[in-house]
Amino acid sequence: MKSLAELQAIRDRMKNSVALREGTGDIRIVVGMATCGIAAGARPVLNTFVEEVEKQNLVGKATVTQTGCIGMCRFEPIVEVFEEGKDRVTYVKMDSEKAKRVVAEHIKGGRPVYEYTIGEAQK
Amino acid sequence: MKELSLNILDIAENSVKAGASLIEISITEKGNSRELVIQDDGCGMSKEMVETVTDPFTTSRTTRPVGMGIPLLKLAAEQTGGHIEIFSTQGADHGTRVYAQFFTDHIDCVPLGDLASTMVTLLQGNPGLDFSLVYDTEEGRKNLDTREMREILGEDVPLDSPSVLMWVAELIREPFDSEDTAE
What's the topology of domain B4-173? Predict the structure, then answer.
């Protein structure tokens, strides 16, 4: 049974580490969460990005945020990756497995996964 | 929408856009009836908007003139023999209340689905807002209130911290207290 006492324990554990975790977050991962995105499966994609960024220790490097309709509903779930000094990368028709690969190869490794991008989808 | 919890996420996102500071979600299951209420304290809607909001060609979005959120909730409710009601007036803090009733013994009733992921998604995207969830069934009751959580976490630990989000997901996913049924 989950209890508020456990939340207290989380607080005590994290209080000291929070300051260390606040990085500049040079990379922004933006997931479209309007009706079109949600209906197409954006919720598990978002949650996978949040989990993977945490698991791969990228919290200081990348932040995951949500946005509304990006305007290309037929390509949902859409994820945009913004990085200082680089072109925006737009990933389309995402799912959890693709999200894991994007975190490993693009966010961590610095190499965008071109086969999932909108440029490839439109070929 | 494959699950009601996706509709809930979608409708709650409307409350976020309406500038709400508190979004209250309640689900009450009794017999074959499932009632959903989503109540916010956002900017509300004009009378004309309330009247036309179930029309898919009414939307607040600017990318294209189609809005499927409320129409999809209406469809999900009506295909089980239920209905939806929307109460709202325009003005700061006037808020909107969306009520939907479903009949769970109807073959076209979508499952409630992954409510935990919906709450985690809402908290992750809006750590500055408050959410409450009351899920009341004949088996038991679940309660989540970010105001209560905030009191414990203080200012040092934000609501969107991964370990806090995991706690929320586990709280919602765990079975109901079995004190009555333990034999």
Answer: Heat Shock Protein 90 (3.30.565)
